User: Fold these one by one.
Assistant:
Number 1:
Amino acid sequence: MAQFDLIVIGAGPGGYVCAIRAAQLGLKVAVAEGRETLGGTCLNVGCIPSKALLHATHSLHEAQENFEKMGLIGAKPKVDWQKMLAYKDDVIGQNTKGIEFLFKKNKVTWLKGWAGIPEAGKVRVGDETHEAKHIVIASGSEPASLPGVEIDEKTVVTSTGALALDKLPKKMVVIGGGVIGLEMGSVYARLGTDVTVIEYLDRLIPGNDAEVAKTFQRILKKQGMDFILGAAVQGVTVKRGKATVAYQLRKDDSEHTLETDCVLVATGRKPFTQGLGLDKLGVKMTQRGQIATDGHWATSVKGIYAIGDVIEGPMLAHKAEDEGMAVAEMLAGQAGHVNYGVIPGVIYTTPEVASVGETEESLKEAGRAFKVGKFSFMGNGRAKAVFQGEGFVKILADAETDRILGAHVIGPMAGDLIHEVCVAMEFGASAEDLARTCHAHPTFSEAMREAALACGDGAIHA
Ligand code: NAI
């Protein structure tokens, strides 16, 4: 029986970051991970592989749509799907091996196998039981399905199956117009698949700025994706490799069906706690099946903590990473802290969509007076040069104090641009602070400054 200061369960972005930080702060650390490779959903079947496919298919789109416009004449690339999947797998391999290297470098022990907690202070992996002063559960999440929809990961797939389809489908129905549905839907649409998204609500990407969502839908429609909004999927039947999706339109209860080669179920994820033995331990859960924590990631059982997708909050890798780092610091006697008001969200389509902080909708609901500074990428020279003038930046600031309350971007590199607002918000900056900061020309980031200027005396290029 080995003894550790900390055993982390799960080597996804929450778990591995927690382990590395704890080891850096002098703790003796082990991580239990049952997958063959480290990195969790994010590195193996989530963020990283999907970004590889998004990059490959964006490049294809550039070659098909824009090369000629730039005077680049030649044979258009053909898609070798198996080779594209091999490239994606190579990217996964490089990243998961990178975590293995970091574990060795920081002397973090990998306990290979699925872990259970027989009692507080003990973690069982396979036939061995290890002792730990502290346990951090970072076991992540798994796709949530719908009643009447059976996943076979061939014809009816989750994001995991969608990253490794045998062949390119002619038609795909995506259930759910959220992040996964639109990122993966966009990959297949660019590869020539006829993609239809069925979304329960009357809009895409719920929780995001409504105007961004509308613009996003218009741009994706132009890229060839179809949308059926306000429709509840009732079931999927599969016969000889073809699927029929039954749905009901909420406005008039009319019933419809769609025939397709592949169905991607992207209706959210649920916490993964199987095999941990939480019931027996008496760990308190929320009504939604998450592990309940006290605001400092402590569960109801002393010495057991939980972070990431398995607890409340947005299911985002970087939120889990921040929590992992904070718990590690706390266990090492420092003050761990996460600012939940400044967690960006990014959708990695083209254009990218990014947001942080409050939305107009949330501020109205809270009755808070605010002003809006908006700037279109049409006024940004750099964006026009790369055929991406369609989106905009919106900055929300307090009506009286000018303090930045949120930002919403749809446009080129939005996922990187958003971070200047994140830093500004962490420092309690005003829109004027951002507007007075010199931004290099010509960059996409000038659009951020212009939106900040629009919160005051006005943007220059509008
Ligand atoms: P999601 O919560 O983003 O979207 C699910 C969508 O499905 C919602 O729009 C919902 O209204 C719709 N829906 C639910 N039931 C339905 C029904 N019966 N018929 C039609 N539509 C229905 O969940 P998603 O896209 O599956 O992603 C799961 C999690 O993974 C999210 O928390 C997401 O933030 C995270 N993720 C983040 C990424 C990123 O940061 N780029 C990438 C991929 C996933």
Number 2:
Amino acid sequence: MKMSEEKVFWFLVGSQELYGEEALKKVQSNAQTIVDTLNKEGSFPFKIQLKDELAISQDIITSVMKEANYKDEVQGVITWMHTFSPAKMWIRGTKILQKPLLHFVTQFNNHIPWETIDMDYMNLHQSAHGDREYGYINERLNKNNEVIVGHWQEKEIQEQIGRWMNVAYAYNESFNIKVARFGDNMRNVAVTEGDKIEAQIQLGWTVDYFGIGDLTTVINKVSNNEIEHLFEQYKELYDFDYGKYEVDEWESSVKEQIKYEIGIKQFLDEGGYTAFTTNFEDLYGMEQLPGLAVQRLNEQGYGFAGEGDWKTAALDRLLKVMSHNKQTGFMEDYTYEMRTGQEAILGSHMLEVDPTLAETKPKVVVNPLGIGGKNDPARLVFDGKAGEGVVVSISDMGTNFRMLINEVESFVPEEEAPNLPVARVIWKVKPDFKNGIKEWIKQGGGHHTVISLSLTKDQVITLATLFNLEYVLIN
Ligand code: MN
């Protein structure tokens, strides 16, 4: 997917001058050991860089945080209290830090050496003391920072850090998200509307409208050569299902979508857009609703939602960034399975189900749409993967945005669905069907969501907290 260049996290070690040069040298070398080991063993998505200077004065801390703010490659600051570090000197720098902050509650040694421990050892290894002084000021400053507790050599702790890094990266990337709306919201629909200015203030999203003519101008310039070239690639990637169509007719429908794929991608890239919406009511000058085209762009990491739903399109991009585009995409709650013991929700959409969710090799299918009065559109059809995950939506409640997070378990259905011409994902909601759905509806959760089978609820909560976003967890 389209990801930004190399990003890093800074590692800043708290201490103070009182301990003398010898002790501070030891602090620095222990920190170097931790950072080197984490980079080597942590299998992190991004590198950690140790700051050369220890955080032992207000001037140093303030200057590090200023630098962290303006350097685009820095995605967040990880702090560690090796010793006691008086927190008044942290106030100025912590207040101005605009990047995510992780207070890593760890200690160089994982044990107390009872045979040899003396006051020198205690003064050097007093993370328990330093963590409380430092943590107090973060809470008092409402930093919404993450706290991870555990020894730095534990695998589970390293994995927690890695997951937090992806949240921090997504948070920063949120301020770069630009949504192109091709057409307006679907007429009469409520939950897809919202306050775009507030979304930009709180979440950093730029949401721009374009008339469909702006897009068709670009689409109509796509050459036959480009289309044929991509069609050849499709042969490698997908199964072709001609259904009731003549091959010529089928191919021309698929190639129409290829033209859209190339045109939309060009339009988005030229304007710096990483997410987009379409609306089946707003297709003047287009022969089909983009289906296959949208799915192909989802596969490349562009966020999307149907019916002009810009909130879900931006959320889709945001969660795709956070998951590195693994098993994450736009979804719509469609149909219930209500038999006792088998309760589940079938999720899908008219066409645009994200292929990153596919368990089976997608097949290209052409079928009538049933609404919209356009030509039969091509789409990718597959069964969704099984796994634990989250379904997330954002609703505009008039006074604020509310994020809903439902833990779900997706499974591969045993039954074939030979007449279903769209991709399907089916999941069980937590804590159970009746209570999970009732809570979702009572809290005003939308029918458009983003489902992810690779993100955890904790990651989504950490993200919501960074944005000061009201959230409801249903599990
Ligand atoms: Mn929809």
